[in-house]
Amino acid sequence: MNKTLRPRILINCLKHWSRCYGTEQTQAKATAQAQARPKKRSVYVGLTQPPDAQSVKTDYIGPPDPKSNLRPYVRHYDENETELANKLRLLRIEVEKWNMDFWTKHNQRFYEEKADFIRLHKLSGNDELSADQMSVFYKSFLDKNRRIHMMYNISWYIKNFDMLTLAFAVEVQQLFNRIRKRT
Amino acid sequence: MFRAYYKISSIECLSTHILSAQVQFFRFSTIARSSASTKLQDARNVPSSNNSGPSSILNQQKSENVKISVEKCPWMPSPYVDDGKVFSKYKKLSKFRLTSLVVITTMGGYAMAPAAFDLTTFAMCTLGTGLVSAAANAINQYHEVPFDSQMSRTKNRVLVTGQITPLKAVGFAVVSATSGLCLLYFGVNGLTAALGAGNLFLYTSIYTPMKRMSIANTWIGSIVGAIPPLMGWAGCTGTLDAGAMILAGILYAWQFPHFNALSWNLRPDYSRAGYRMMAVTNPGLCRRTALRYAFAICGLSMVAPLADVTNYWFALETLPLNAYFCYLAYEFKSKSDSGSSRKLFRFSLIHLPALMLLFLANKKNWYFKDNVEEKHVKSDDSYVSRLTTSPSGSLENVLPLKVTVGSS
């Protein structure tokens, strides 16, 4: 402790040397400079790590998942949440999990098949693949996955609509509760 | 303590309150992180010291020139609006720039119609169309959240990043569509409202699902783009005739070079997200269609003077504009690389407003003699009948029945 204190005192003395021996002019310039240069202060919004569901007051959304490109949600858990709100939260968690599963598998299939296509093409002699040649792969991928895409589409529309109606019901319920509390 | 914080966070317009809320947020978030398993009672010990913190920063803010920079961490609260920019979020939701282009085409359709220009009807027509278009775009974004997150062009949309909840987005769409359609029905006429409602249905319920089913979606989407000038035309005259069809036809044809050039560079993204576009499934057809419809625009511009929409100078003036457009489409067809497609897309964004302006500049009749003749006839009748000509114009639009006074 004592070892660090002495150099610190010395440095502090040296720092304020100009103040002891300086003229009024330099003092004024220093304060003017400090006032002219705006102090930068950063305020952080959000969190760096996914929060625990019980410890937050609102839902949180995170950075996109590298495999499925979807953003994960953390749905907050309130101790006195109503039945409807509970249903909504569980439905949202289930749909998000289903979505993420689908897209992870789908994107993995896409990249694997694309790598296979490029490898096969390189084996047959040609080095560079033009965009038109890649289009053959894109078309075949779309054709192969047509039925899967249709099924996913219908399921997604239905689930999205379910989430919407439930969210609307929860909002209406919360509005009624707020009105009831005031009266 | 959290209830007080919640009250602070609900005030969005005052930046100082936002600042204190954000600072408290950060401090509470650190508490949340450190004591994740314990109850919230521990947090009550800290706020007493925290109360001095935000207020001290507030005091400092008032005395010094403090530059606040808001840093966003990876995990953000889900419905989040920064610093009261609520309006700009909804603008992004409604695809404001696309909506304004649609509104410009409607204004062009209104101005080109061979009937008298009424400022209130014009304003209601454009505002109504803008609102309906905003609603359609919001519903489209609501439906396509997982697909938009796959593509790099659309992954920063407000619903994908969770800044607006889906319920609020659909609520905005419903309010916007209702008010837009009411404006069109009560402020303009029934035909415009019907066209608006039909366009909304076509875009949200037919075009959006079809994007993932077959490449015919581009043709349906072009119809969606061609209807707004028809709405403007119907808003002015109340009927649709050959001239309206020519204007709509030019806009229908314009959609093809515009969209094909846009989608050309996004083929890998479209394929992975599962969209069925010509650029992905049939690139040859994509390039040929762009060129064919560029020629169709040329042809329709030549025909416009014959249908009494414009004077004959129009055909001469649009020739260089359309010729350059056809040249760019030909370059796109022969080279078909990212450079030529980008040039074609960018020029199409200039080509459409320029064409609209030329339409306006070469309009066939600016003044209509029918009204003057009516006035000459009616001046022989009683004083009452002459008075009713001017207010009845706007009253007719509001009342559901035709206002006629006196016998003629």
What does it look like?
The complex is a heterodimer of chains A (183) and B (408). Chain A has 183 residues and is mostly helical. Chain A is 68% helix and 6% strand. Chain A has a domain at 80-182. Chain A contains 6 helices and 3 strands; from the N terminus they run αααβββααα. Chain A has a two-stranded antiparallel sheet. In chain A, helix 4 packs antiparallel against helix 6. Chain B contains 20 helices and 2 strands. Among the domains of chain B are: 86-239, Orthogonal Bundle (Tetracycline Repressor, domain 2), CATH 1.10.357.140; 241-364. In chain B, helix 6 (96-112) runs antiparallel to helix 7, helix 7 (119-143) packs antiparallel against helix 11 (217-237) and helix 12 packs antiparallel against helix 17. With 408 residues, chain B is an all-alpha fold. Classes of the chains: A mainly alpha (183), B mainly alpha (408). At the A-B interface, strand 1, strand 2, strand 3, helix 4 and helix 5 of A face helix 1, helix 2, strand 1, strand 2 and helix 8 of B. Strand 1 of chain A pairs parallel with strand 1 of chain B.
Over all CA atoms, what is the radius of gyration of chain B?
27 Å
Largest sheet of chain B: none
Mean pLDDT over the residues of chain B: 79
What is the end-to-end distance of chain B?
77 Å
| Relative strand content of chain B | under 5%
Structural Rg of chain A: 31 Å
In percent, how helical is the residue content of chain B? over 70%
Named at the architecture level, the CATH assignment of the domain at 86-239 in chain B is Orthogonal Bundle
Distance between the termini of chain A: 63 Å
Given as residue ranges, the uncertain stretches of chain B (5+ residues, pLDDT < 50) are 2-21, 34-62, 370-393
Count of DSSP H/I helices of chain A: 6
Tell me the series of helices and strands of chain B, N- to C-terminal: HHHHEEHHHHHHHHHHHHHHHH
Fourth CATH level, the homologous superfamily of the domain at 86-239 in chain B: UbiA prenyltransferase
Output the CATH topology of the domain at 86-239 in chain B: Tetracycline Repressor, domain 2
Organism (chain B): Drosophila virilis
InterPro entries (chain B): Protohaem_IX_farnesylTrfase, Protohaem_IX_farnesylTrfase_mt, UbiA_prenyltransferase, UbiA_prenylTrfase_CS, UbiA_sf
GO molecular function, one term (chain B): protoheme IX farnesyltransferase activity
Function (chain B): Converts protoheme IX and farnesyl diphosphate to heme O.
